[in-house]
Design a protein that fits this description.
Layout lengths: L28 H5 L8 E5 L4 H12 L3 E6 L6 H8 L7 E5 L5 H10 L6 E4 L18 H16 L1 H7 L3 E5 L23 H18 L9 E6 L13 H6 L18 H4 L1 H8 L9 E4 L2 E2 L2 E2 L9 E2 L5 H14 L4
Parallel strand pairs: 1-2, 1-4, 2-3, 4-5, 5-6, 6-7, 9-10
Antiparallel strand pairs: 7-8
Length: 333
Amino acid sequence: MTTNHSQPGSPAHDDPTLLTTPFGSHASAGEVIDGVDLTGRRAVVTGGASGIGAETVRALAAAGAEVTVATRRPESAEPLVREFAATGGAGLVRTEALDLSDLTSVAAFTRAWRGPLDILVANAGIMALPTRTLTAGGWEAQLATNYLGHFALATGLHPALRDAGSARIVVVSSGAHQEVPFDFEDPHFERRPYDPWVAYGQSKTADVLFAAGVRRWAADGITANALNPGYILTRLQRHLDDDTMRAFGVMDDAGNLEPLPYYKTPEQGAATSVLLAASPLLKGVTGRYFEDNQEARTVRGDDDRPGGVGAHALDPEAANRLWEYGTEALGGA
């Protein structure tokens, strides 16, 4: 489940500077990529074995792309591999091991990559770990997995993205970022009390700042945009207890999951990712944030309308500072 911490839906905006598309909030991944030919293109989708990641893989491969599913358990993606091996006219789907919380694993993946890379979808993530958990490198686990692992992956694959000539990076964030600026003074909750949702929100702010920071690669033909996929029931909610799920209104007394009327299916949830990854409407667009297949308005101050992107997540100074912070964590890579 991708949570937004706000009321569902995003209002129509009248800002002419924002990019709009003809696709509605519940358009499917197949609809937004219809007519797009990705034959000869190569893509990596992290966490692509299930949920919106799997639907992203399906859409890109169905359009002809060669897609690598990067996941901690490669065997979990074997059904997708077999599905497309038996589908004539579709792109090849393969799977490789990648643990985003382990920089050694990320480095192994990037060292093994050969050839150009046209699309990198930073989709994998974890949400609301109930207790403060640190990686071997001393990073809070949500920040390490959702942000640093993807930053290391993109940095390691930068030559391959550059060689593609017009590569796109797609970063799956969340509306949970809105009220949580990145805390540069205490990002790992060493001094402040740990809160699962604050930690999650901070990691998703970091994701948006990461996408904004990719502007420095514009001369290499690389663009990056972030997105909120909306409310979807997936494995992302696996760390939430039943009481929390009931509080969200998506679990009955018997423990059965029941999506609310405004929730999206995984294929609908993947639509904005696929739009940013492959649509010609996004050619040359970079450093922006999308929701419901539209560019989102920037939220400042006491704006209590649903949706939007927090101004703190698009701040160029914060984006540069986070890029430097991430680079230092990678040992100056």
